[in-house]
Amino acid sequence: MSQNIKQKNKQFTVPNGYFEHLPDKILSRINEIPASSETKPFLFVLKKQLAFAAAFILFFVFSYSVFRFINNTVSDNTQTKSSIDNTYEDLILARVDEINIIDFLTNTSDATFNNPNEIENYLIDENINEHIIQENLNE
Amino acid sequence: MSQYRSDEDILHDIQNNHLPHKAFKELIEKYQVQLYYHIRKILLNHDDTDDALQNTFIKAWQAIYDFKQQSKVYTWLYRIATNEALALLRKRSRFSFFSKDTYAEEWVARLESDPYFDGDEADLMLQKAILSLPEKQRIVFNMRYYDEIPYETMSEILDTSVGALKASYHHAVKKIEKILQQPLNLNLHNSSNEYESEY
Question: Which residues of chain A neighbour B147 with C-beta distances below 8 Å?
Fold first, then answer.
């Protein structure tokens, strides 16, 4: 304390030897505090390590959750798209008449020949026996 | 040059369990006088001040392992000491028979008979004037006038803005001068560096 501060406080006096004995008096009171406080230094050191461990575990759990979430989302999207396609196909087919389907297939078939020569050429190319053709025509 | 190590060195020894009781004793020796007079001017009598000061250091010991040095050690200790002193003051006034009107006069009468008060008539008049101030103004006045604590440090200790502290001190000085009917000697050392180098 500066001299100026000491001078201003001089009217407040203390018993003789008060400041000499006070630290030991306080320390003896501290020593009487139950043992739980004495374990504080150990807990203090341990607390830092626990904090690191907890941070690492939290980071791992968070990363794993994000990974799982992204995977599930991609898989769900694929499944949903495929099921939507199937449903759409069924819906369209249910609305179209069967006769129309047969007509469509007949009209677009590769077996349709417009020219009689094409039939003859096809039969020759395929090496189909004349006898077999006759049998089919009779049926 | 100070006979004590820096707060950081003392704190390092305590928190790393390197002879913590010895290091804490050094901390008590370093700050006991300043904290004693700070508490004494709030509570006025020696016995109450002794109780509050011992409790201050015991509470500091119980919390020192969690102390993160976000504030300086001495501002932290001053804050604990102020809270302890105010708690005891409120407890004491709850069981006091003094009315607000006679509070200052009763305490001055006690001071006169206190074996640990060695003030003259002028000191008693000043104490009476200080006792007539509201609690916050009284603390601000004591910290600034008697202990010459810089406003920035007081701001940290009392968790109040510098502007509000300056206004409180100004009002307190005006009231005291009015009661004493003479100007106060406000020859303060304003350098905060000088204050901090003390410790």
Answer: 5, 9
Q: Is residue A51 part of a domain?
A: no
- Quote the number of domains for chain B: 1
Question: Distance between CA A1 and CA B186 in Å, rounded?
Answer: 18
CATH label of the domain that carries residue B64: 1.10.1740.10
Helix axes B121-131, B103-113, angle to 10 degrees: 150
Partner residue facing A23 (CB), from B28, B46, B117: B28
pLDDT of residue B189 exceeding 60, the answer is: no
pTM across the whole model: 0.64
Nearest to B144 by CA among B72, B38, B31, B30: B38
The tally of domains found in chain A comes to 1
Does residue B59 form part of some domain?
A: yes
pLDDT of residue B9: 93
Q: Is there a domain that residue B103 lies in?
A: no
Rounded CA separation A113/A122 (Å): 10
- pLDDT tens digits, residue range B95-148? 666 666 677 778 888 888 889 999 888 888 999 899 999 999 999 999 999 999
